[in-house]
Amino acid sequence: MSKVLNFTIDGVICMAEKGQTILNAATANKIYIPTLCNLPGLKPRGSCRVCNVKVNGKFLTACTTPVAEGMEIENNSEDIIDIRKSIIELLLVEGNHYCPYCEKSGNCDLQAIAYKYNIPAPRFPYQFPDRDIEATNGKLLKDHNRCILCKRCIRGIKDEDGKSIFAFKRRGHKVIINIDTRLSANMTDEMAQEAMDICPVGAIIKKEIGFKVPIGERKYDKEPIGSDIEEIKATTI
Amino acid sequence: MGQKLTIEPVTRVEGHGKVTIHLDDENQVVQTRLHIVEFRGFERFIQGRPYWEAPVLVQRLCGICPVSHHLAAAKALDVIVGVGPDNISPTAEKMRRLMHYGQFFQSHSLHFFHLVSPDLLFGIDADPAKRNVIEVAREFKDLAVQGVMMRKFGQEIIEATAGKKIHGTGAIPGGINKSLSIEEKMKFLIGKDPLNVDQMITWAQGALDLFKDYHKKNKNLIDNFAKFPSSHLSLVRKDGALDIYHGVIRAVDTEGNKILHDIDYQDYLDYIAEEVKSWSYMKFPYLRSLGNKEGWYTVGPLARLNTCDFIPTPLAQKEFEIFRAYTNGKPNNMSMHMHWARLIETLHAAEMIKELLDDPDILEGELVRKGNKTIEGVGLIEAPRGTLFHHYRINKDDQIEMANLIVSTTNNNTPMNRAVELVAKSYMNGQEKITEGMLNAVETAIRAYDPCLSCATHALGKMPLEITLYNSNDEVIDIKRSE
After folding, report:
1. Which of A232, B177, B262, B402 is such that its CA lies 20 to 30 A from the CA of B153?
2. B53: closest CA of chain A, how far (Å)
3. In a domain, A105, yes or no
4. pTM of the model
5. What's the ipTM?
6. Is A191 inside a domain boundary?
């Protein structure tokens, strides 16, 4: 049996297996820590920083940091929540996120976290970037206006030889996620649906099936994001 | 000394507009214009978006009757996905119809009770402090409650069919995304008093009786205010019945002769063109066969009752017969009779809601169909305010590359301008002092059309009425402002 580590999150005594990340251990202890780039089954990247927690006074990403014996973790303190909110708000102003006509609305993690943290409007000015839609693929559409560059698609959607169908293109602030024309040519409907589902926002859209799930039956229509995990409700400010 | 009067913004209508009235040295009206002062640009910024987004995106034009845009776009996209409006499943068509009749019911109720009743109950020239919906609620409490409840009922029908009361997602290309649950059906059929369909039918009849009684007592005003000859255009069912969801386009001239003979709306561009004028963001549609001078027409409740042959529900049909008999079967060109026609349609909508709720197809069945995709489609629907055209063309990558929307109020552009001119002339010509009551008369004429001046999503809060008088050198000589 693997070694059991004792630690606390917001003063609640928790237990973890050795090697378990703070995020996975928190989930196992029924405590919700928000994430955008992380997805169970994929190697964590710590790129979105939404899962920031404070460990012994230091900010660390919960998805990449392993639990150590005696760790005192803050998850719902005022400064952590403010950092998470500011990250969400920066993502909202950096792209063009128009929820009213986005078909991912109700199933979108970014929107759901914004609701969870009561963000009625971002504190930062909107950037309104001029971005395209890439629609030449027969099955998928890539809306760069909504992409948050989390790399979930690059890491999670691969062909039968294990090659990524999505890849970064360009550098710096001009970076976008590109669909490989050759590899995606034989994409199945199931794969296209998987790509749409893996995207935490509405940047990857399966063609021709929009808005098929009625309002009221979407993922976050009934309960806020994290409700399936948490027993200790996250503080909202 | 010549004068220019400006009414800005026009109140108790959806959206923003202004009226300018030019007077000559003898205070004779020489020109009046209704200006639409907002530019929305939906036709342009929808370009590049995936086609299946259109029903959800374009409905954001309006917060009062978004269902019309939602359904008109969906109908155009039915054609693009190769299903066509005649071939969607019975469940999809009936759910869409239920959504649409729910919208008609709430929109017409809102217009009559909230926007128009102050003019009828207190008089066109009553003190503006009195002439508003708050005072209606104070003095005619039962009537105000009815208005609120009727709107609520319609909105709840929309919520049950589209997912939300405003800006839902029910209609999708080729069908609908849900059927009605038995609980929803029973709620509307035998729901808690007063929110059930039988009560709505009774109240719709009551509103109609109220109008007819007012008509009897104020015959001169109702029959002669802003009365002018016009052609009329609307959708009718293929057998000539009133149909607000699907059919063919019919237009009649002022004598009732058909000038558009039940045409397929996919070919609307062969028959209808639009003219642009420099002083308004709203275009001026006209029938090509008659040209831009003579080809203008009226749409909306009055037009629909002038073009159709009958109404396919018994209580509304009875009222329709009385309505048609009033003009000996000829087209009715009395602007204030639009309220009468609107209330007959409100009754018809309630009857249709009941009929649809009793239909088993509404509870289960095929939701979406697919066919062979095409690149272009037109969707036509009768919005509460009149005929609404949506026309889309897509590229090979499923992106919209062209959108043309002719909204109901655009179709009514010329008639509204005519009505404004008539009323301005009859109330103001030669008058020494222009009173607030005279200006409200101008607004009353516009209000009869229930215009959605740029669709209502931007109209928030209290809208003041401001009138500015200019002399012939464009110098301000007087300002009136009612808060």
Report:
1. B177
2. 7
3. yes
4. 0.91
5. 0.91
6. yes
